[in-house]
Amino acid sequence: MYRRCSALTLALSLVLSCAPLCSDARAQAQSTDNAKTQVQTGAKQNAQAGQKPTPTDKQVEKVKRTVSKVGVAQKITIFLKNGDSLHGTVAQIGEDSFQVSEVDFRQTLTVRYDDVKKVRSGYGGINLLTGRRTSPPRGLRIALFSALAATLVIPIIMVAVSKD
Predict the structure, then answer these.
(1) Quick one: which of 78, 79, 109 has its CA closest to 92?
(2) Is the dihedral of CA 109, 79, 61, 49 positive or negative?
(3) Mapping DSSP to helix (H, G, I), strand (E, B) and coil, where does residue 33 land?
(4) What is the DSSP string of 59-124?
(5) Selection from 86, 84, 102 nearest residue 28 by Cα
(6) 87: which of 36, 123, 127, 132 fits an S-S bond (Cβ 3.0–4.6 Å)?
(7) Which is higher by pLDDT, 133 or 24?
(8) Separation between Cα atoms, residue 64 and residue 10, nearest integer Å
(9) Listed range (56-65, 86-95, 140-149) with the worst mean pLDDT
(10) Separation between Cα atoms, residue 123 and residue 89, nearest integer Å
(11) What does the domain layout of the chain look like in residue ranges?
């Protein structure tokens, strides 16, 4: 009986932690859309007035450089400003946007440069517990930390247990 209850509690907590709340997600999407339109109008006004480029312009240029450096038909991971991430291959690079053949959705998506927060080349494997892709540097860090902990902890335990 105890095992069943604990298994059900664990399963329920995993499902609830992975499922987004609908009302919060909609509110966040609306606030992101409002902020995005304000940023776009501000960037247009700055360009028309001949003022200094804003930080968003610098971010767009950095994303453009990274995407062009990765190149067409290469693996890429895209982190969007709304919190989503896309994993796929670059299909086409344009002036205002680029196309990505998404691996998980199995379709080609057009992504605007100003919607992108960060870009990285390559993409990781799928985590079997969460179903989400892991980033290669994060997986490498976890593996290194585990190996370091094992090499340090095991000798410490052996010394502590020995009575000599």
Answers:
(1) 109
(2) positive
(3) helix
(4) HHHHHHHHHHHH-TTSEEEEEETTS-EEEEEEEEE-SSEEEEEETTTTEEEEEEGGGEEEEEES--
(5) 84
(6) 123
(7) 133
(8) 43
(9) 140-149
(10) 9
(11) 134-164
